[in-house]
Structure formats: structure tokens, C-alpha cells
Design a protein that fits this description.
single chain, about 160 residues, alpha+beta, nine-stranded antiparallel beta sheet, 4 helices, about 25% helix, about 40% strand, globular
Length: about 160
Amino acid sequence: MIINFQLVEQQLKGEKMKVKQDWKPIKLKAVDDQDLQVFSQFLYESIVLPSEINFEEKNQQFAMAVERFTWEHAGEEKHLLMQVLSILVINYVEKANLKKIFNSSKIKNILSISNIDNNILIMLNGGDIITFKVKKCYCLLEDIGKPFYPAIIPTYSKNDL
């Protein structure tokens, strides 16, 4: 069997260009728990580095850069899954519990985000939780980078969320 590597490479480049052209960056706002459930789907397995977390107590604003996976773009076709730099912002933060996260140098993954009685919870792997007491729920999620293909593709089941 003879494989024409040039042809295969051209096909892969063509698919890669098509995929990136079809991809649209997200820009979402959440004002209640239903909205945050949508955020959870977009943020599932996102990569978080403690060094990319910022809390401005004076401005009552929390911001976190994450490398999220484009589940909404890939659907059931895992080979279309990409990774993109995004920013999660939580406004009106009265109190934040971040000590355990800031004291860690480990890479974390987001499992879910929710709002219960103006307490926003970000569940991370390893049982870690980031908690915020907020005046009201007002969160933003926006893609700010260009998508790229990840080195490792995480698994995802619709039953996980």
C-alpha cells in the first residue's frame, strides 16, 4: 500500500482551514443559574492556571483566563475539538475564597459553575472549589484568542453535565 503523504497533508490542511473558518468566538453574559449552566457546558474541562487568576477586591471583580475547549463547535466529532483562550469575569463580588487555589501551583480543570443564593461556585478537579459571595449574578465569558488543536483531547459525555 502506497500512501500519498502530500495528498493527505493537503486534505488535513483543507479541513483545518474549513474548521477554523466555521468557528465563531463566544461572548456570553450570565445573570442567573440557568445562564451559568450554559457557561458550565462551554467551560467543561477548561484549563486553569493559578497565575492566570486575578481578584480586585476594590472593584469587586474576579477575572480568570482559561483555555477552554470548543465543545459547541465539535459536537460529536472529537477531531473538530479545538482549544481557545477565554476570559471569565465575575462582577459584584463581595467576598472570595481563593486561598487554596492561589497557594497551589497545580494546573486545574473546571468541572462546573453555578449560582446558589448569590453564591457562585466554580467546581474544579481534585475536589477544589472557588466560592464567591456576590451582590447579584453578573458574569461574562468571552473568547479572546484564536482556536488551535489541543495536544490531548479530553473526553466528554452529555451525561457528565
